[in-house]
Amino acid sequence: MRWRDSSRRIGLDVDSPPTQVPELPPSFEILPEHLPRDDKGSVLWTEVFEVSRPLQVEIGVGTSTFLIDIAERNPGINFVGIEYSAKRVAKFLKKVNHRGVSNIRMLRVEAVQWIPKLFSCQSIAHFHINHPDPWPKRRHQKKRFVNRENSLLLAAFLSSGGGISLRTDFAEYAQQMLEVLDQTPGLTNLSGPGVFASIPREPTRTLYETKFLKAGVQIFYLEYEKTARHGPGTSHAP
Question: What CATH number corresponds to the domain at position 190?
Answer without folding.
Answer: 3.40.50.150
